[in-house]
UniProtKB/TrEMBL annotation:
EC numbers for this chain: 3.5.3.6
Protein name: Arginine deiminase
Species per Swiss-Prot/TrEMBL record: Aminicella lysinilytica
Top-level division of the source organism's lineage: Bacteria
GO cellular component, one term: cytoplasm
Length: 406
């Protein structure tokens, strides 16, 4: 096994994964903030944690090292000066318009040990947490009924999205919505100051300050030459171009395949409708097969990106880039349109492949799971009554850091 960040496929044996154990941040969800915080419902925390623990346990049982956001970020903040810089940057990004509030929150958080500080930032800082705020500006006199000074990060358990490990490097993303942007700062500090996570020499393909949105659910590493990326509700064409230019110039990857998927909440990322489960097998949501447009980005002879609109079918393109005689696209929900819609909504196509032909899925998606099983895929299911309320499945809940090469 190579050390550090090493990810040249979607299906190679998974050695190390970054998760976030769902926590009190989801108890900051109320119907009034659902739309802004990207939820449709409130997970019951106790049960969601049990489900998440089972997810981690299944991974460990299959030889995967599981590391957590809170621990890995805390390791990055051991130096006092780094901890201070991180907190200041976090406060800069937290829409705090009052100087008095900002100072009070800074004093409250910096006094905590690094791990506790990170946990609190993720859970959100409530007005009740800060008993006394000095009035220093007009904004300090203005009060509202909203309970938080700093919003919680209820989406962090979808660790797939704030970043992506590709080859021997990392993307730290610029998220499309303000509510998820601060999640990426945790990852950025992990990259910069936690050498267990990102040893010297790890590359950075995309950075927090890059201006165009790109989210990890859209990034699929097909093999050591090809990265597929969804042009989606969350990932912009300009973000894809910037990522492609960097990775094509500085790595062994030769092409970026762009899948232009419908822009809708149900299909928010490519991995909600398309994932790889074996050398030659994929899950796909039937509703994207028709409208799909595909493009390829390569480097021209002049060293500049070359863009091409592809006319061939997805199946033929996959055969070509994977150098296979045939590929099988397994339809989420089979041929039943209602099962397809229902199971896609509950992330039936969102499989996490942990070795060729072995996937982790939500047990509730029994139609798709059964089909995968019939196709010879080993399906390890996890309970999902509460986790699925956040609209993401096992692939969304995991950021693979290290996989064996194929
Ligand atoms: N890769 C994924 O599709 N992640 C799921 C993210 C769900 C989260 N509630 C969001 O809307 O961002």
């Amino acid at each position: 096994m190579y050390p550090g960040i090493h990810n040249y496929s979607e299906i190679g044996k998974l050695n190390k994964v970054l998760l976030h154990r769902i926590g009190p941040e989801v108890e900051g969800l109320v119907p009034d903030n659902f739309a802004r915080l990207l939820f449709d419902d409130i997970p019951y925390l106790k049960v969601a944690q049990q489900e998440h623990d089972r997810f981690a346990e299944v991974l460990r049982e299959n030889g995967v090292e599981v590391v957590y956001y809170v621990d890995e970020t805390a390791k990055a903040l051991q130096e006092q000066s780094v901890k201070e810089e991180f907190l200041n940057k976090m406060l800069d990004e937290s829409d705090l318009f009052s100087e008095g509030v900002r100072e009070a929150i800074y004093d409250y958080l910096i006094a905590m040990p690094a791990k506790q500080m990170v946990e609190k930032i993720i859970a959100g800082v409530k007005k009740d947490d800060i008993p006394k705020v000095e009035t220093k500006s007009l904004a300090d006199f203005i009060t509202s009924a909203y309970p938080f000074y700093m919003d919680p990060m209820p989406n962090l358990y979808f660790t797939r999205d704030p970043g992506a490990c590709v080859g021997n490097g990392l993307n730290v993303h610029h998220m499309s919505t303000a509510t998820r942007r601060r999640e990426c700062l945790l990852l950025r500090y992990m990259f910069m100051h936690n050498k267990d996570f990102a040893p010297e020499g790890s590359q950075l393909w995309y950075d927090y300050d890059d201006p165009f949105s790109i989210e990890g659910g859209d990034v699929l590493v097909l093999n050591s030459e090809t990265v597929a990326i969804g042009l989606s509700q969350r990932t912009s064409a300009a973000g894809i171009e910037r990522f492609a230019e960097n990775i094509l110039h500085k790595s062994t990857f030769k092409r970026v395949l762009v899948l232009d998927i419908p822009k809708s909440r149900a299909f928010m990322h490519l991995d909600t409708v398309f994932t790889m489960v074996d050398y030659d097998k994929f899950t796909i949501h039937p509703e994207i097969e028709g409208p799909l447009r595909l493009f390829e980005i390569t480097l021209g002879m002049d060293g500049k990106p070359h863009f091409e609109s592809l006319t061939d079918s997805l199946q033929n393109i996959l055969k070509k880039v994977l150098k296979l005689p045939a590929v099988d696209l397994i339809r989420c929900g089979g041929n039943d349109p209602m099962a397809a819609q229902r199971e896609q909504w509950n992330d039936g196509s969102n499989t996490l492949c942990i070795a060729p032909g072995t996937v982790v899925t939500y047990e509730r998606n029994y139609v798709t799971n059964d089909l995968l099983d019939k196709k010879g895929i080993k399906v390890l299911t996890i309970p999902s009554a509460e986790l699925s309320r956040g609209r993401g499945g096992p692939r969304c809940m995991s950021c693979p850091v290290n996989r064996d090469d194929l």
